Inverse folding.
């Protein structure tokens, strides 16, 4: 009688778990939106690569916390926001994970020098806002979220966000101040004034 | 500039629209990243919660400590209890902590947060260099140690006469955990340059007394001695309901102005919202209207305007004010504002 062959060593085959499948799906659907989120907020693609890597690592380790109700992207943006805060405190690790992504992104840095006057004025204006105001405007204007979705990212009640957004936009307008004429066109030699002046 | 024009300008200033991001040549890097994430043993990045959550948790935690300490040190009705029990309570919290200062020129305390017997943090800064001292509950030592030790090289180190462990996150980011002493244990994390600079810096940490520690606080931190004055200044011009007690707000604490502001405006807001809720129940229209009118003024409370640039507490309070103005129940205000 032929002896029963012994089973392959357990390390040879790695079963793909439900959690892994779920993470695969999460990663595939959200990698590019998340990369866009990161690229819009940092000056170098290197940093964006690290933010994506760290955010996705958090999502994998906490996959059971990631909502399954279609708001996973908002959850990821919320995590990325905290990772970004670490980055601003000089805490972002140069993740080994992100090495290849860093290499691929190196070629794609935006040409900030080539920005139009109006875009430069907008970026200056945004820079003068509080972190919360700026993030809210970016989430709605650049990341394409509606106020209800932005509220999820920021962890505040949706009703709060509408008022805040209105005020943040008013502050941005004030910060842009004299940089724009009444027709919305940029003036050449004026720079935005500090947002604080209007408070 | 109208809304539409602002939207157009914003859209034009977007450095990476959706289409350019879709076209980025990152597909193979993405698969690599996915594989690496699934297999890496790197520690999960630490994330700090946002400020609003922190403040609300802090308010709740502070209330719990006051209750606990009142029970321990000054039992209700104890005739021997000093009239200014709060000062003693906060001193007791301070004394349970390992108060440290840096004996290094140019280094100053830049921030203090969550001042409790078992948890808190303070930052020291000199230019772009920082050193943070955290204290955590003694019973969470193992959890923190395991987290830090996971995938980070570490070695024994002696700091403040204690044998601890130093972990290397990067070549310029180090953290040291010391064994628990009393109710808490210390973690000292620094980005002060290379390892030699970190070691030299933490060797300059020294334990100090309560008074010396408080005297080193930055101006934005409300010191116990100034607390009553600060609270009164914050309350100036704010309408208070009948029977509102200021005394509990004078409780000594070490917090920055944002947190004191949250405590003060939260107490007033809670009192008015309580009055509105009770008045709606009993059908007292005058009292309900009084609460609505008072809360409407919150939009011009100076301290909220100051706090609004830093965090979301004012927004939350204004939302409740707007709710009752529209005759809507301010759902969840007790949790939202940290009502005691």
């Amino acid at each position: 009688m032929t002896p029963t062959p012994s089973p392959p060593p357990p390390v040879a085959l790695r079963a793909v778990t439900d959690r892994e499948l779920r993470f695969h799906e999460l990663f595939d659907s959200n990698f590019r939106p998340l990369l866009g989120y990161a690229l819009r907020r940092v000056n170098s693609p290197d940093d964006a690569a690290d933010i994506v890597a760290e955010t996705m690592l958090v999502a994998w380790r906490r996959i059971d916390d990631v909502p399954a109700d279609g708001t996973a992207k908002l959850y990821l943006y919320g995590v990325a926001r905290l990772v970004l805060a670490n980055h601003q405190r000089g805490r972002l690790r140069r993740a080994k994970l992100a090495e290849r992504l860093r290499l691929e992104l190196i070629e794609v840095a935006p040409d900030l020098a080539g920005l139009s006057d109006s875009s430069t004025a907008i970026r200056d204006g945004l820079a003068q806002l509080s972190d919360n105001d700026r993030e809210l405007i970016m989430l709605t204007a650049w990341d394409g979220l509606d106020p209800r979705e932005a509220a999820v990212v920021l962890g505040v009640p949706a009703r709060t966000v509408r008022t805040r957004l209105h005020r943040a936009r008013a502050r941005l307008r004030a910060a842009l101040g004299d940089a724009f004429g009444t027709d919305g066109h940029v003036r050449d030699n004026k720079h935005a004034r500090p947002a604080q002046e209007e408070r | 500039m109208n809304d539409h024009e602002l939207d157009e300008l914003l859209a034009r200033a977007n450095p990476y629209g959706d289409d350019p991001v879709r076209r980025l040549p990152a597909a193979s890097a993405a698969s690599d990243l996915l594989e690496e994430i699934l297999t890496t043993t790197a520690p999960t990045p630490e994330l700090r919660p946002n400020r609003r959550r922190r403040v609300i948790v802090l308010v709740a935690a502070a209330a719990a400590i006051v209750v606990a300490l009142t029970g321990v040190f000054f039992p209700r009705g104890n005739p021997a209890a000093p009239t200014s029990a709060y000062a003693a309570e906060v001193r007791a919290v301070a004394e349970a902590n390992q108060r440290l200062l840096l004996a290094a020129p140019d280094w100053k305390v830049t921030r203090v947060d969550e001042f409790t017997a078992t948890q808190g943090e303070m930052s020291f800064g000199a230019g772009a260099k920082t050193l943070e001292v955290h204290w955590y509950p003694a019973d969470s030592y193992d959890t923190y140690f395991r987290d830090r030790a996971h995938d980070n090289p570490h070695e024994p180190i002696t700091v403040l006469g204690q044998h601890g462990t130093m972990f290397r996150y990067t070549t310029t980011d180090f953290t040291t955990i010391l064994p628990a002493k009393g109710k808490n244990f210390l973690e000292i994390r620094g980005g002060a340059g290379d390892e030699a600079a970190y070691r030299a810096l933490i060797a300059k940490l020294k334990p100090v007394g309560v008074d010396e520690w408080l005297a080193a606080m930055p101006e934005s931190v409300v010191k116990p001695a100034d607390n009553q004055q600060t609270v009164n200044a914050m309350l100036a011009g704010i309408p208070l309901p009948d029977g509102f007690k200021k005394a509990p707000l004078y409780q000594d604490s070490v917090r920055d102005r944002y947190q004191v502001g949250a405590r003060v405006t939260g107490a007033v807001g809670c009192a008015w919202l309580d009055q509105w809720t009770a008045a709606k129940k009993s059908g007292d229209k005058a009292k309900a209207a009084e609460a609505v009118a008072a809360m409407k003024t919150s939009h011009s409370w100076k301290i909220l305007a100051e706090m609004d640039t830093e965090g979301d507490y004012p927004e939350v309070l204004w939302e409740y004010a707007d709710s009752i103005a529209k005759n809507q129940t301010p759902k969840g205000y007790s949790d939202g504002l940290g009502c005691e």
